[in-house]
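Pipeline run #58 for the internal structure catalog. This entry was flagged by the ingest filter as a single-chain record with no existing model, so it goes straight to prediction. Upstream metadata was stripped on purpose; only the residue string is passed forward. Reviewer on rotation: M.T. Logging verbosity set to normal.
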Amino acid sequence: MTDNVLKPLPAVEALHHSGTRLNDVIRYWSSLREGNQPPRRSQIEATALAQSLPDVFLAEIITPRVARFRLCGHRIEDLMGMDMRGMPLTVLFHGAARQDITDALEQVALGARVMLSLQGESGFGLPGLSASLALLPLTDDAGRITRILGVIDRTGTPGRTPRRFTLAKAQDLARAPLAPAAPVLRVIAGGKV
């Protein structure tokens, strides 16, 4: 998995040029970057994402491998048939894909932009469903990566809920590194002089 994280593959590069909602959100996120730093959460404006909002979510990074939904578009909630606020991002994934998504979250916590090609689980009452997922890091006002702007651009209908994903191809994970943020230092009163 780690080897595949380091190099973009053609299937993932095609996601950038597909003209989908995913592409619109990535373009907006990129327009807010200052140099190689991810944008701040406070810069994100819902009106700029109006056409994509049903497929967009904001997640809070709890630990480098765990993120919880803070806000979630209704088309994403339709996959589970419930309000997703407070739930871990891994709830959308089935089996071994949970390990892959936690690996991806760890990369995002370090400042990487991650894109995944997903396939909905199949079975009775579960029509064909595929999706592209982008996880884009956001910083707080102190410059720490604490949030994720995400978008799930899906094709197909959810069918019976809950509906979870597996990775269509594990090698479709791509990493586009950003420059690491400068460490945040603070003065603690009461130290030795």
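catalog note: Residues 97-109 form the longest helix (13 residues).
catalog note: The beta strands are 56-63, 66-72, 113-120, 129-139, 145-156, 165-167, 174-176.
status: ready for reviewer M.T.
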